Structure formats: structure tokens, C-alpha cells
Amino acid sequence: MQKQLAITSCPHIRSRKTTQRIMQDVCIALAPAGIAGIVFFGARAAAIIAVSVITCVLTELVYEKMMGQRVTIGDWSAVVTGLLLAYNIPATAPLWIPMVGGVIAILLVKMLFGGIGSNFMNPALTARAVLFVSWGGIMGSYPVTRFMEQTADGLSGATPLAELARVFAGQATLAEGTGLWDLFIGNCPGVLGETCKLAILLGGVWLILRDVADWKIPVSMIGTVFVLYLLTSGFNFGLSLREVLSGGLLLGAFFMATDYATSPQSNLGRVIFGVGCGLIVFVIRAYANYPEGCSFAILFMNVVTPLIDRYTMPKCFGEVKQHG
Amino acid sequence: MFAKRMFPGGIHPHEGRNGKKVNRANPIQELPAPQRLIVPLAQHIGAPAKAVVAKGDRVLMGQMIGEPGGFVSAAVHAPCSGRVADITLCKNFAGAEVPCIIIENDFKDEWVELHPAQRPETLTADEMRTIIRNAGIVGMGGATFPTPVKLTIAKDKTFEKLVINGAECEPYLTADHRLMLEKPGAIIDGIQLLMHAFGVSEALVGVEENKEDAIQALRDAARGVEGISIRPLPVRYPQGGEKQLIYALTRRVVPAGALPIETGCVVLNVGTVFAIHEAVRQGMPLIHRITTVGGLVNNPGNYLVRIGTPVRALLNACGGIQPHVRTMISGGPMMGTAFTDVDIPVTKGCSGILALDKSAIDVDESACIRCGRCLRACPMHLQPAQMDRLIRAERFDEVDKLGVLNCIECGACTYVCPAKRLLTQSFRAGKRIVNIRRKKVRDREAAERAAEEAKKQQAPADGKGKEE
């Protein structure tokens, strides 16, 4: 009997939460948005998702095999990156787009910086930014959904964000644009995983309930965008609400701004991060000549994260002033 | 939730089979003393006791067989009557060989003459410390720091509040819970005796609110007694940590690197208070304690065990351990010590004997994903992931700056880590190295000062220009 007993150093019990389980939870949370993408944009969306996930996982596997490192694809984090990358690509894109994106995300952004937890920018978002800058024509054309009035080339004239920008500038009225309900359920042009806000919110709630994501980042980010639009539009509630429900804000706030490796760890740091993201999204959307700023806002704040972390880490208990 | 008395950080650890939920209902049973008892001379923090008996001597139950080996030390007593079979080295839970007095039990339980205090209510602080010292009482929560030392208050400090730890926040353990439930009167009496002796007007008893029956029992026992209040606390590990408990009960913060008395508080475990009650009222030295046996044993329970009883006897009383046990632990699963030899004796600080399965064995570490869970779990507001990274990179000066020496090794960060990193283990190593480095710096500075001093004395005439 005694031979089987092991000596280990305390603590002797561990929580059931593992990296793998956390990443699987993110995949579960991402599922509704993916299904909605397939419903709205057809089988093409499914193909992009599949290619993106497979590319990401294979890239990680091949890199680790080649470098003689321990294979970590079992932690499911490459799957998460693959899903997020696919969700940021328009369904009309050719299949080599997610392939190139997947290699950029995993090889350049994640593995070369040391793998999971060591990257300083969100892999999927960085890849998306590279694709966007390199193949703007493909990445910047948004298809109409299967339930919208079909155009000749299948592409939409104006995204909801472009419509809202004109409203904000006083050149149009809200009534001319996409309806609130269509925005909410995702019947609007956009990249394949960002349109259905209902699905994203469901996933977001799952993340928070499962203690995977911290509510502070999405709430402070979305709240900042909403409040800034309210203040600058003369309390135009309808416009502010539509801004929140348009573009990639919800997908970014719940799934990409909350990426552990690239967001601050302390509570205060997370609020600062969220507010910073929201502020940049607002500035880009409202004043820059670029309709969407979510990716760049998050990427910018990713880079600032070490700085935020440095100044917001808690003080050791007992090094505060003594209470009476 | 915020109105509740809460310390920062903390976790809710889960339990496997035969945890608190089962064991809280098991009344304390007295375990008969075995044939042979092994009484270690070192079962407390500080200098080992010095044996005052020799091989072959007949000893009576409760007789002092080891006297304190210094100020920070504790006496040990014979847990039964019998003959000293040997004084030799035996293994303790930590795996070290320590001198032990082995007593062959004659099963007569003949007591040494006991001297209960004549007028317990009028004891002075000094008399109280002497009684506690003679009874060999140490912190019974597991830390085993000699209680009389804790109760020796420096002249410039005031002892305002007695904080009693009935939190029992470690999973599985129910020894304190049963004690509070079955002996509430004795605990309240012990508190009163201490309050009288030390002139303390307020005592706060912190009990986690999942022990509602114990809270009720203590409240009933304390009814009409002035100055003692029973405070339910949220269930959160490590609620029973001294600094955490003081903060939860008084909102006072123990300064980093300082002792609890800085806040005017002395913290004692309910088991310690019970032992003090027995020492004062009955003149009884510390020769037994309550130990929880839990986890994968056939019949878990709470036992009144003589100090020196081999673990084997306890396990036999519980119907043995189950075949898939992979780790045996003395104490709780968060801060206890793993051992393999069941002939190791139960000591004063042994609050539990647990049998756990393979999930208790270190799992594979993976890379830190920077999720920040450790940061939120740390009751000392440290930065576990960052400290771990620096320790592994051997950047010890930076680790020192981050306050690694304030780590109380509660294990909360390691418990929550999804990458299963051995954080607490890393900090234990890091603390040792930081301490050694600090000592080296101190020694070097002292040597430099001494050298300078010598130089000045040698050449007082031309010393002025060379100050720099």
C-alpha cells in the first residue's frame, strides 16, 4: 500500500478549471454567432470557418513539431483563434484568405512570441488587420444576407455603420437605415460572425456565467461607446443604440477585448482597458474617415496593456495605510 | 455582499468524498490509546524540547517528559502511563527524523497529580503564561507556534482584542467544528479566563457561516457573558489566516512584515482555547487533540486522539483506506503535508488525516495564459503569476520587491490556476532564496560597517578626508 503513495507539495487539491476547459467554453460561446453566420450568409460561411480553424490548428501543430516543442493543440486555443479569425472575414472572401490569415495569426503573432499567453496582440485581430490592409477589396466588401434584397454582385452598398455615420453627420435620418430588429438578429451586411448581436450576447452571457470572461471589459467598452454617442449626438438614443449594435463592437468587446494574454489582469486595469477601447472605437467611427474602428481600438489597447498592468497592479495587503 | 466581513481575494475550494458535509455530523469519539506511543520532542515551531526522562523510566499519564528547550519551545507530556521504551529518532510528517520518546502503554492510565488553578478568575498574565507553558500548549490550528510566546506582549504594544479562530476554512476538516458544537461552554470559559488574565475587554469569535449549529451553540454558551461576540463569517478560504481573520473581524490591517499584535489583536484557535481551559480548570497538560479523518477512508470521523498515536491506529479505527488512495495528508488539503509512512505519530498540530486520490498528485504544468485568476485569489494582494515568472528566471531582487516574503503560502493561487502551475511551490523556494540573499546583504553591510569603524579608529588623524 505504501509504495503507491505519492509525496507532493501542498496545496493538494486543484480547481477543475483548466486552460482546455476555458477554451472549450469560448468555443461554445462562439457557436451561436457561427451558426447565425451560416444561416445568414450560407454554406460559404461554413467553409470559411472550417478552413480557418483547420489552418490555425495545423499551423500550431506543424510549428511545434518542427521546433521540437510540446504539442499544445489540445488546449483548444488555436480553435478559438480560428473561429475568431473566420468571424472577421466577409463570407464572400476566397478560401485562401482564411488560410493566409490563420498562418499569420498562429505563426507570426502567437507562436513566434512564445505561444499561448505570450503574444502581446490578439492573433485573430492582428491577422484580420494584415488581411484588411493587404486585400482591402476582399476584406472590405460586405455581402448582403440571404434574407435581404439581392444586389447584382451580392454586395451591399452601405453597411449600417456607414449609414449611421451619415446620420451622425446630419446628412441622413435614422429611418432610412437598417431597422433595429434586423441589426439585432443579424440581417444586415457585415463580416460573417459579427452581424447577429443576439447570438453574440448569448455567447457573452455564457462566458460571464462560466467565469471565463470578466464582465468589466465588455461592459466598460460598450458603455463608453454608448455614452459618448449619447453625449455627442444630443442624446439621440436611437442612434447610440444602433451604434452599439452595428459593426464588430459586440463581437470585439465580448470575445476579443477579453483575450487574457492581451488585456490587463487587475480589476481597475480591465476597466481602464475597456474604456480606452470604447473611446478609440468612438473616435475612429465618429471622426476618422474609416467606418469601423473596433479592431484597431483593441489592437492599440493590446499594446498599451503592459503599461496599464504596470500601474494598476494591487498593492500588497498590509502596505496600505493602517485603519484606525 | 460587500457589507459582509470580507478579506480581499480568497477562493471556494471543492471537496472530494467524505468532506465537511459528511464529517460535520460525526460526533467526537475517543480513540483508545495504542500499545506504543511515539511522542516527538519537536512538534512545534522553535527549539525542540529536552527529554527529562530516560529509557526504562516509568512515567505517569500527563507527566512532563520533555521540558521546553528555550523561550520559543514547548514542553511535551506522557499521553499515557507506562514505561519509556526508547528515546530515538523517528520520522515526522515532514519526512525529517526527529528525537522521539517512545512509551510502552501499561493501559492503566494512571494520572500524575494534577494541579488545577486555585482561583482561575484572578490569575495574572504571568501566572496564565506559566500554566500554558507548563501544559505545553501550542497553536492547535496546525501552525504549532508556542502559545505562551504569542501571549508575551511587548511593552510598547497593547493587547486590546482577543480574536478566536473558529473559521476552519480548510476543506475536509471538521475537528474545530465538532469541538465548538460539543464543548462550547469550555471554549467560552477559556476565552473568559484569558480575558481576565490579560485584561482584555473584547473577544471576537469568527466562525464561517456554514457552521450554523456551532455558531448557535457558542452563542448559547456566551449568553450573558460580557465582551464576547460570536461573528459569522462568509465561507471563503483562507478565512482562518491570521491577517485575513483580523481584517474580517476588526477591519484592521496587519502591516506587511509585522505581527498581528500591531493591530492590538492576538489570534488563537478554538482548539488552543479549549486546551487552555483544560490546563487551567483541570491542570491537564496537552496530551490529546481532536483530529478529523476524512477523504477516501471507509468510515470517516472526528477523533479525540492521544498525541503520539501512530496514524495507523487512526486509520484502523476508520476501517482502513480505500484502494485508490494515492496521497495521505496531515492537516488540510490546502496547507497540509503529504506523508507515506502510516507509523508516523499524530502530533499537537495534526488537525486532520486525509486520504486523497490521484487528483491530489501534481498535474502537468502548462504555460501561463495570463487569465489573472491568481491575482484575484491572492488574499495578500500579491502578483502570483509575475512572481512565479521572475523566480523561474532567477530574478530574485525583483521578486523581493514584489513582496514574495508576504506570501502566506495558502495555496489559493495554485488552486485556481487553470494552467496548473506550481505557484505556491515556486514561492516557497523563492522565499527561501530571497531570505538567504537578504541575510547576505545584511552580513556584508555589517562587515563593511565594522571595517569602516576599524579604519576610523586606526587613523583618527587623517580620517576626515576619506569619509566618502
In brief, what are we looking at here?
Chain A has 324 residues and is mainly α.
Produce the secondary structure layout.
The complex is a heterodimer of chains A (324) and B (468).
Chain A: H1 19-41, H2 43-67, H3 77-87, H4 96-110, H5 123-134, H6 136-139, H7 160-168, H8 180-185, H9 197-209, H10 216-232, H11 237-245, H12 249-256, H13 267-287, H14 294-312
Helix pairs in contact in A: 1-2, 1-3, 1-9, 2-3, 2-4, 3-4, 3-5, 4-5, 5-14, 9-12, 10-11, 10-12, 10-13, 13-14
Chain B: H1 20-23, E1 28-30, E2 36-40, E3 50-51, E4 58-59, E5 64-67, E6 76-77, E7 82-91, E8 97-105, H2 125-134, H3 147-150, E9 161-166, H4 175-182, H5 184-198, E10 202-208, H6 212-221, E11 228-233, H7 242-250, E12 265-269, H8 270-281, E13 288-295, E14 301-306, H9 311-317, E15 327-330, E16 337-339, E17 352-356, H10 373-377, H11 384-392, H12 396-401, H13 412-416, H14 423-458
Parallel strand pairs in B: 1-14, 9-10, 9-12, 10-11, 13-17
Antiparallel strand pairs in B: 2-8, 3-5, 4-7, 5-6, 7-8, 13-14, 15-16, 15-17
Helix pairs in contact in B: 4-6, 5-6, 5-8, 11-14
Describe the overall structure.
The complex is a heterodimer of chains A (324) and B (468). Helices cover 59% and strands 0% of the residues of chain A. Chain A is mainly alpha-helical. Chain B is of the alpha/beta class and 468 residues long. Chain B has three domains: 115-283, Rossmann fold (3-Layer(aba) Sandwich), CATH 3.40.50; 288-360, Ubiquitin-like (UB roll), CATH 3.10.20.600; 366-460, no CATH class. Chain B has helices at 20-23, 125-134, 147-150, 175-182, 184-198, 212-221, 242-250, 270-281, 311-317, 373-377, 384-392, 396-401, 412-416, 423-458, and strands at 28-30, 36-40, 50-51, 58-59, 64-67, 76-77, 82-91, 97-105, 161-166, 202-208, 228-233, 265-269, 288-295, 301-306, 327-330, 337-339, 352-356. A six-stranded mixed beta sheet of chain B has the order 1-14-13-17-15-16. Chain B has a four-stranded antiparallel beta sheet with strand order 2-8-7-4, with no helix packed on it. A four-stranded parallel beta sheet of chain B has the order 11-10-9-12, sandwiched between helices. In chain B, a hairpin with an 8-residue loop joins strand 5 and strand 6 (76-77). In chain B, helix 4 (175-182) runs parallel beside helix 6, helix 5 crosses helix 6 and helix 11 crosses helix 14 (423-458). The model of chain B is unreliable at 463-468 (pLDDT under 50). Classes of the chains: A mainly alpha (324), B alpha/beta (468). At the A-B interface, helix 1 of A face strand 15, strand 16, helix 10, helix 13 and helix 14 of B.
